[in-house]
Design goal:
The complex is a heterodimer of chains A (223) and B (244). Chain A has eight helices and no strands. Chain A has 223 residues and is an all-alpha fold. Chain A has a single domain, classed as Orthogonal Bundle (MetI-like fold), CATH 1.10.3720.10. In chain A, helix 2 crosses helix 4, helix 4 packs across helix 6 and helix 7 runs antiparallel to helix 8. Chain A is flat. Helix content of chain B is 39%, strand content 25%. Chain B has nine helices and ten strands. Chain B has a six-stranded mixed beta sheet, sandwiched between helices. In chain B, strand 4 and strand 5 form a beta hairpin. Chain B is globular and about 55 Å long. The mean pLDDT of chain B is 93. The chains are: A mainly alpha (223), B alpha/beta (244). At the A-B interface, helix 5 and helix 6 of A face helix 2 and helix 3 of B.
Chain lengths: 223, 244
């Protein structure tokens, strides 16, 4: 057997790479979701000073390339602050921030899609702003947001592949390693691409199921 | 009682309410008539604190709706039914009715639910209690809206053109319930275009025109030739509404 041949061990490598990609995706999605949602809630409460600051930050994160942000966190921050940032830390910070910015935008749009009549009819019955958010606005906003959110998450999974350039051994990095060893780029990248495809498809399917559930009883049946 | 004194409200340069004085005593049904844009709905929205007053005072059992500390108590004593129902689309009928009793009045869920089901049953919706608003007709939705308000056990029911979005058959469904409520002595402020119905259930009728209160008369005096009908604006309004 020549060293360029594929071995069964390569499957384990691919699975490991996929595991790292998916784990990073899940962790950064969770953190990004929390931060983005907290930002949106602050905006709902119209916290003075903070709201324009958050909007500005989200704009910055949305409108610059993730790769540049990644380099800034991995190379720039350590140089400036004289600290040590590992590739995984840099990946988690950058992707979480990026996801947070987009989730913030989706959450704000979703909250603003809820008619004033809904908020008023809760207010006149004496519900507090928090109770209105929790029982009236959030469930309807979630039903509105789940479509764009699924689209975002599918995209964010693909974006994780960027972290391979700073040395995180994710699925793309494994693809790179296998490619260099076997010199069969077509097969390697087809398999890697297929794995991303399957993972993305699972996210999309999960999102679609959740969407059906969340919207089953609402008035909108789509346009 | 609900007391309004010199209520002023403008939207930009448009004066919508221009010094309204009105008292609603417990047990009364007061209908507010007037053409579109006369300020009827705005007056209700001032009473339940959805609009900030530009001047004057509204109190509900001496709780000032302009005072944030009093507003919560004022809102517990009054409940609003909206023209476009404003039900929560993601909740079933019974969930719509129980939300505020559970969250605001802190009534245990089981008790709130059994009370809500009894209320829905009393308006003929017992079998539809677990349906979502999208699965109900307009008349059914508005009956849920009325139950949602009654579940708060309010002293005052504020009804803002609650049949304007309904066809005549559904209007009748909803008005029948109001007639029942009026018989049981529920205090109501009833903004409406249903003049004949207002005549049958109201103790007093108030007529607004261009943000001013033109007359405030007992129902029989309002419709008498030497009472409200003596006012040219009211006579014109009534004859026009009756033609339609």
């Amino acid at each position: 057997m020549r060293y360029t041949s594929f071995t069964s061990y390569d499957l384990i490598l691919l699975a490991q790479g996929l595991g790292v990609s998916v784990a990073l995706f899940l962790v950064t999605t969770l953190i990004g979701f929390l931060i983005g949602t907290i930002w949106a809630v602050m905006r709902f409460y119209r916290v003075p000073l903070l709201t324009p600051l958050i909007t500005f930050l989200a704009e910055l994160l949305k409108n610059s390339p993730v790769l540049v942000q990644l380099f800034l966190v991995f190379f720039g921050l350590p140089a400036l602050l004289k600290i040590n940032v590992t590739p995984v830390e840099a990946a988690v910070i950058t992707l979480s921030g990026n996801t947070a910015a987009f989730i913030y935008v989706i959450a704000v749009a979703a909250i603003e899609s809820i008619g004033r009549d809904q908020i008023e009819s809760a207010r006149v019955f004496g519900l507090s702003r928090w109770q209105i958010l929790r029982h009236v606005v959030a469930p309807q906003a979630m039903a509105f947001a789940i479509g764009p959110l699924t689209g975002l998450l599918v995209n964010q999974l693909q974006v994780t592949s960027l972290i391979s350039v700073i040395g995180v051994v994710d699925l793309t990095k494994i693809g790179n390693i296998l490619n260099l060893r076997t010199l069969k780029p077509f097969i390697v990248w087809t398999v890697v691409g297929g794995l991303y495809y399957i993972a993305a498809k699972l996210i999309a399917l999960g999102g679609a199921r959740l969407e059906r559930r969340l919207r089953a009883h609402t008035a909108w049946k789509g346009l | 009682m609900i007391r309004a004194r010199g209520v002023q409200k403008s939207f930009g340069s448009a004066v919508v309410l221009d010094g309204i004085d009105l008292d609603v005593n417990v047990g009364e049904v007061v209908s507010i008539l007037g053409s579109s844009g006369s300020g009827k709905s705005t007056l209700i929205r001032c009473m339940n604190g959805l609009e900030r007053l530009d001047g004057g005072l509204i109190t509900i059992d001496d709780f000032d709706v302009s005072n944030p500390k009093d507003l919560a108590e004022a809102r517990k004593r009054s409940a609003t039914v909206f023209q476009l129902f404003n039900l929560y689309p993601h909740m079933t009928a019974v969930e719509n009715v129980t939300l505020a009793p559970i969250q605001v009045l802190r009534i245990p869920r089981a008790q709130a639910e059994s009370e809500a089901r009894a209320l829905l049953d009393s308006v003929g919706l017992g079998a539809r209690a677990d349906a979502y608003p999208a699965q109900l007709s307009g008349g059914q939705r508005q009956r849920v809206g009325i139950c949602r308000a009654l579940a708060m056990k309010p002293r005052y029911l504020l009804l803002d053109e609650i049949t304007s979005a309904l066809d005549p058959e559904m209007t009748a469904e909803v008005l029948n319930i109001l007639a029942q409520l009026a018989r049981t002595g529920t205090t109501m402020v009833f903004v409406t275009h249903e003049i004949e119905f207002a005549r049958t259930i109201s103790s007093r009728i108030v007529f607004l025109d261009k943000g001013r209160l033109v007359v405030d008369l007992p129902t029989d005096r309002f419709f008498a030739g030497d009472g409200g009908m003596a006012n040219a604006r009211i006579a014109q309004f009534l004859s026009k509404m009756r033609k339609e």
